[in-house]
């Protein structure tokens, strides 16, 4: 028990967020709503059971990849200090339901501005969205919310989203913008032997101008500093799909090391 607000208990194994179809996500939201109303009707304190995001609930698989375990955190509506957090979670759930019912997708920034009067800043919204992911077990894109794209890719690669034209990443001198949602994007490797991650956008632009992939057969990726989820997901997908080793150019200081570890884990 922590501060009288929430309790943690172990379920089992791993709790990675999934990408269920829209109908299944809506069914999860309906189940949460019915459970909430049922608790009120019985005179009970409504509670939400979220996968714990604490460091104690982090586990590694046999390949060294980091996952959340299935330790649960219980948040109660009428617990000390819990009411505001509880209400904010439901505000995000309501937005998610609206996006799914209207078959729309919003960036995380756009979603924040839909609820800007209810959150003090983007960081508070982001934290609450993570709670919603932990509550539903659904990835952000399954909830109708995608990462803002602030990364680029260049080199021996083409990609094509559903219904779109193939995009050749070897053309131009500034790379191609990585989409905020990569589910459904089809990549084709054109002979690359490496993935080269570049921390700084200026270095990325220089390497693109030099067409480094003509000398080193590679795909060059930048997250323009700290990479958003879409950039990290793209690197992971390319590495696994085409069995490409990942190399990186980062500043030789703690800040650069932290960015490197963001990609690694």
From TrEMBL:
Keywords: DNA-binding, Isomerase, Magnesium, Metal-binding, Topoisomerase. It catalyses: ATP-dependent breakage, passage and rejoining of double-stranded DNA. Its EC number is 5.6.2.2. GO terms for molecular function: ATP binding; DNA binding; DNA topoisomerase type II (double strand cut, ATP-hydrolyzing) activity; metal ion binding. Residues 85-145 form the Spo11/DNA topoisomerase VI subunit A N-terminal domain. GO terms for cellular component: nuclear chromosome. Residues 194-265 form the Topoisomerase 6 subunit A/Spo11 TOPRIM domain. InterPro entries: Spo11/TopoVI_A (IPR002815), Spo11/TopoVI_A_N (IPR013049), Spo11/TopoVI_A_sf (IPR036078), TopoVI_A (IPR004085), TOPRIM_Topo6A/Spo11 (IPR034136), WH-like_DNA-bd_sf (IPR036388). Pfam families: TOP6A-Spo11_Toprim, TP6A_N. One of its GO terms (biological process) is meiotic DNA double-strand break formation. Belongs to the TOP6A family. This is DNA topoisomerase (ATP-hydrolyzing). It comes from Geodia barretti.
């Amino acid at each position: 028990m922590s501060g009288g607000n929430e309790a943690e208990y172990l379920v089992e194994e791993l709790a990675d967020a999934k990408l269920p179809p829209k109908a299944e996500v809506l069914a999860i939201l309906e189940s949460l709503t019915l459970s909430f109303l049922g608790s009120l009707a019985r005179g009970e304190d409504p509670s939400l059971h979220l996968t714990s995001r604490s460091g104690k609930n982090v586990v590694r698989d046999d390949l060294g990849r980091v996952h959340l375990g299935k330790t649960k955190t219980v948040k109660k509506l009428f617990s000390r200090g819990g009411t505001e957090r509880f209400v904010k979670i439901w505000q995000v759930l309501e937005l998610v339901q609206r996006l799914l019912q209207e078959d729309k997708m919003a960036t995380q920034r756009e979603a924040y501005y839909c609820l800007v009067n209810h959150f003090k800043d983007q960081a508070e919204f982001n934290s609450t969205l993570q709670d919603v992911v932990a509550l539903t077990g659904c990835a952000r894109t399954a909830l109708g919310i995608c990462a803002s794209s602030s990364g680029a890719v260049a080199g021996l690669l083409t990609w094509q989203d559903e219904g779109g034209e193939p995009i050749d990443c070897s053309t131009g001198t500034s790379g191609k913008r990585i989409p905020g949602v990569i589910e459904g994007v089809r990549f084709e490797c054109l002979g690359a032997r490496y993935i080269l991650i570049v921390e700084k956008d200026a270095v990325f632009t220089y390497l693109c101008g030099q067409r480094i992939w003509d000398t080193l057969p590679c795909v060059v990726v930048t997250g323009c500093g700290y990479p958003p989820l879409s950039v990290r997901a793209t690197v992971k997908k390319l590495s696994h799909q085409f069995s490409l080793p990942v190399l990186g150019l980062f500043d030789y200081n703690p800040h650069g090391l932290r960015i490197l570890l963001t990609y690694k884990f």
